Amino acid sequence: xxxxxxxxxxxxxxxxxxxxxxxxxxxxxxxxxxxxxxxxxxxxxxxxxxxxxxxxxxxxxxxxxxxxxxx
Length: 71
Known about the structure:
The structure is a single chain. It is built from two helices and no strands. By secondary structure, it is mainly α. It is globular.
């Protein structure tokens, strides 16, 4: 059978991530944050995985706000 893109990516070009960066953190080191993330540089953007990463960061209990931006 054929693979069909899910609704989140239908009609859009695949985006390969050039980098995954952390900004604005004050109490937690970048490395500790990046260790929790499943999204990695070089991968095709997976919005479901990014949503899971945001939830995982909130789950750490250190952040009042977590945003994922595509620049």
